[in-house]
Amino acid sequence: MRILGLDFGTRTVGVAVSDGLGITAQGVEIIRRKSSNKLRRTLARIEELIVFYEVGRIVLGYPKHLNNTEGERCKSTMEFKEMLERRMELPVELWDERLTTVAAEGILAESGIRGRDCKEYVDEVAAMLILQGYLDYQNSGRSVGASAKTNKES
Fold first, then answer.
1. Is 93 helix (H, G, I), strand (E, B) or coil?
2. Hey, how many other C-beta atoms are within 10 angstroms of the C-beta on 143?
């Protein structure tokens, strides 16, 4: 079973997918939308990717503040999670995404990608980091249910 990783933003969704063994995350694409509240096409594209990659679970980045509080972006992420669960009929796990965008920008900068080019790829790389963190935790011998709860509480 493959796992889909999503970095949900106001106008983009970075997408990554695991390999069949659930060991590594690979970037897939960035889904862009013109307005933050226009999600129909975004959900349709995610559904296409789920079918294509034979996905059995979704990991959704949860954007808590550095001080561990939840803001407006957490609320919109929870609403998106509920939409995904209803439409895709798959389990959706929340995964702490703090500093993944900063880490993604660092990875891209080390690769020589900066400025406008960096913005083209940062959400996809962030989705890879979210998913890879989840996979690493899952493969460390802990149960998946505990990983999402423990991670969300940290």
1. strand
2. 11
Pairwise CA distance, residues 14 & 33, whole Å: 12
How buried is residue 70: exposed, middle or buried, by Cβ count under 10 Å (0-12/13-18/19+)? Answer: middle
Tens-place pLDDT, residues 39-85? 999 999 999 999 999 999 999 999 998 888 898 999 999 999 999 99
Please name the helix (run of DSSP H) or strand (run of DSSP E) that holds residue 117, with its range, or none: helix 115-138
Question: What whole-number distance in Å separates Cα of residue 103 and Cα of residue 91?
Answer: 27
79/82 Cα distance (integer angstroms): 5
**Nearest to 57, CA basis, from 128, 134, 2:** 2
pLDDT tens-digit map of 24-46: 999 999 999 988 778 999 999 99
Q: Which of 101, 91, 80, 94 is nearest to 50 (CA)?
A: 91
